[in-house]
Amino acid sequence: MQAKEPNPMALDADDLRDVDRDLLDYLREGRVTPAYARDRMIDEEKREVTSTYLGQRLQRLEEHDHVRNLYDNGLYELVDDPREGDSDA
Q1: Per-residue pLDDT band at 68 (split at 50, 70, 90)
Q2: Every domain of the chain and the residues it spans
Q3: Could you tell me if 6 and 22 are in contact, meaning their C-beta atoms sit under 8 angstroms apart?
Q4: Per-residue burial over 48-64, b = 16 or more CB atoms within 10 Å of its CB, e = otherwise
Q5: Does residue 88 register a pLDDT over 60?
Q6: DSSP string over 8-60
Q7: Over the range 31-41, which residues count as b (16 or more CB within 10 Å of their CB) and which as e?
Q8: C-alpha–C-alpha distance, residues 16 and 48, integer Å
Q9: CA neighbor of 37 nearest in space, from 88, 6, 85, 78
Q10: Cβ distance 58 to 69 under 8 Å?
Q11: Between the CA of residue 7 and those of 19, 33, 46, 87, what are the distances in Å?
Q12: What is the pLDDT of residues 7-19, one digit of tens each?
């Protein structure tokens, strides 16, 4: 099996908004939809956002190969967390 080449368009931690970080945290736990993420953010009193906005943020993460939209149905899973691998330690 060949190793996947890094995406030159990949984001790094500095490119992320707080909402992106929350989405990535949820994705580390499992798959999410924009509606699920919206409800969870509201329940956790993090922020009030629309599922449309969260869908746009997830699409941006997908464009940079960090998440995958399974079967193009709005269910996303994590592929590569841009917060990892940036440290020189």
Answers
A1: very high
A2: 14-78
A3: no
A4: ebebeebbebbebbeeb
A5: no
A6: TT---GGG--HHHHHHHHHHHHS-B-HHHHHHHHHHTTS----HHHHHHHHHH
A7: ebbbebbbebb
A8: 18
A9: 78
A10: yes
A11: 22, 24, 31, 18
A12: 667 787 778 999 9
Read off the tokens for 41.
Answer: 């953010």
Phi, psi of 4 (to 5 degrees): -75, 130
CB neighbours of 78 closer than 8 A, spacing ≥ 6? 24, 27, 28, 66, 67
- Name residue 34's amino acid: P
